[in-house]
Amino acid sequence: MQIQDYFNFLAPDDIRIKGSRIGIESVLYEYIYRAKTPEEIAEQFQTITLEDVYATILYYLHNKEEVRTYLADWLEFCRQQREEQMRNPSPARQRFRQLAIDVQQEYIESGNTV
Fold this sequence. Notes:
Number of domains: 1
Order of helices and strands: EEHHHHH
Strand order of the largest sheet: 1-2
Distance between the termini: 60 Å
């Protein structure tokens, strides 16, 4: 079995672990940026095996520059999405924000301080 056999290469910016909807970026983010062990990662993502986690790490180690670029692009996409959500919050988020303001105002009006 080749290391690539563990993955579905759907697009240059979308590599998924075979048999799951989990992208390699999810596993590698936990491994690289959160310093989680492969066992912790496998426990966190219950639809993949410990072998899948190790295969993802091995793929990263064999393709560091390519995968670093992949991760940098993914992190930038996430940053842009967060900014867009802040500029244009969903109606549900707007309701939650207003509810939080209302609760805080009621708390203050009852004589308490924040």
